[in-house]
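Hey, I'm writing a tutorial for new members on how sequence and structure tokens pair up, and I'd like a real worked example in the thread rather than a made-up one. If someone can provide the structure for the chain below, I'll link this post from the tutorial.
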Amino acid sequence: MEILGFDDAAAVLAAQPFSVLVGARLTVYAPPRAVLEIPLRPELMQQFGFVHGGVLSYAADNAITFAAGTVLGPSIVTTGFTIDYLRPAGGVLLRAEASVVESTKRQALCRCEIVAVDGNGTEKVCAAAQGSARLIDLSR
């Protein structure tokens, strides 16, 4: 099993059109963690001015899968996740911090906290998620 280095993992993220659309960037990729950041802009908000729940879910999903990739390698997909929205998110940056809780040779269970950072650098946890990813055979 091949585990990617940071630059290769960042290239995987950059190859995902939706990740490019939301402006996601990988800031940490080292076993057993991955951190994904999204600079916030008006297009990512819902009607009340908070970050759209779909953006929070995207951040959790991708951070969980990248964290799993630090122990399983790159040929993986998310098998499922749950998310709890704790408070409305706003500010200038969204940070999804995920880590592996437990893993086998084929699957990893991860937890993720999503933090909203305001213009003064104040951080507030706005959502928490748990999910898993498993190896897939791309040759089939």
